[in-house]
């Protein structure tokens, strides 16, 4: 018998054509960060962070977007799994600043170099499965969650303060903000590529009460950071009101799968109820009355929809929202003020302190921000408990297939009405806070576009997820504020951003 010997497969070294890409890309990105960017000093002043030829005598004193490019260049060389996310971040930063400099009529030097480096890094990146990280013990898990939420607080603070508050204080604020968004996306993408975000999500789920407490504490610490100004406290309080409203909509749409296009009417019902009772009842009772009124109408809307679903349900809820808007516009019943609105709604007070006034060294609007944070925390607690309850399982079954759910014994009619009831009450409570914070309530605040914005917040953040509505509402209200410098173009850019997110992340930013 002839013995046949086999040789082990020859292991060929990786060709130079593949190994030089990440190294070359990282080197080119670093070179682009250290090179000057603007060829002249612009009329509005030197381009930020030592980026003009005038300051090239100190090329290594990089800050701002150039420091971010240095960090991303090092990450491209040291973190192979994160190269694609890093390269996309580099491209965003380089495109933003190159475009701004072209708009100012200045020749960009470092911009094209950074663009080439970012393209090389993206070219060298490969989509690899994220590693599975083991969950540690309680002590290590708590420390990891503390560090994670502290980092989240830093990221939120830097996002809000990037580029300043207005064009009057920083002519290049929009470029700095958009560039920081690119850096933030690269950072989040890198953490996801190495499985850290999934690991933190698992830790949060296992230690839910501790994570919820730490997250609440970090949210209450925002006024103590650089973002603790009266302007951002006002914006953050408004975001909190709409985030609580979107959380209620997340129950209706995300859990039960009931498409509601008139949901903003419940926010308006709570606001108008509290506005009419503000002079006769203290705020807690007026807020409860607003939530109860919205809940009653939630049942009224939910009852006729028991036999409709899908597009037909959307039409019914759209009709309800339009009926409410026209009734408020025409002041039917004399309860909405019509074109005159309802002015003179008193501010919330406690121990003689108006909530719209500064509290010691804390900025104006701090107390309304605290109310908004506590309201969002309560809405999240309701969503968490309902999601894991028997009714939550019934809602998810209805969302997947209502006929199968009914065949398995789920009382679908009762479950759908309860979803409308809970969602409407959360919106009504948020509307009561909205009325007292604004001091006046008019019908124009509750048109169809607001319902679309709330629905977009739920879909963008992630339907059915706990933080999804909060993330979506925050983005939908922070981005327009930061893009005010683009005037007529900001809504177009805002819509383009939504299209890109839905194209590349259809499950939402926070997937279930």
TrEMBL record:
How is this protein positioned relative to the membrane? Answer: Multi-pass membrane protein
Q: Transmembrane residues, as ranges? A: 20-38, 58-79, 86-103, 140-157, 177-202, 209-225, 260-279, 285-303, 310-328, 366-386, 417-435, 455-479, 491-510
Has the keyword Transcription regulation been applied to this entry? no
Gene Ontology terms for molecular function: branched-chain amino acid transmembrane transporter activity
Q: Which UniProt keywords apply?
A: Cell membrane, Membrane, Transmembrane, Transmembrane helix
- Highest taxon of the lineage: Bacteria
Identify the CDD domains for this entry.
TM_PBP1_LivM_like
Keyword Cell membrane among UniProt keywords: yes
Localization per Swiss-Prot or TrEMBL: Cell membrane
Q: What is its main location?
A: membrane
Annotated Gene Ontology cellular component terms: plasma membrane
PANTHER family cross-referenced by the UniProt entry: HIGH-AFFINITY BRANCHED-CHAIN AMINO ACID TRANSPORT PROTEIN BRAE, HIGH-AFFINITY BRANCHED-CHAIN AMINO ACID TRANSPORT SYSTEM PERMEASE
User: Which protein is depicted?
Assistant: Branched-chain amino acid ABC transporter permease
Source organism per UniProt:
Nonomuraea diastatica
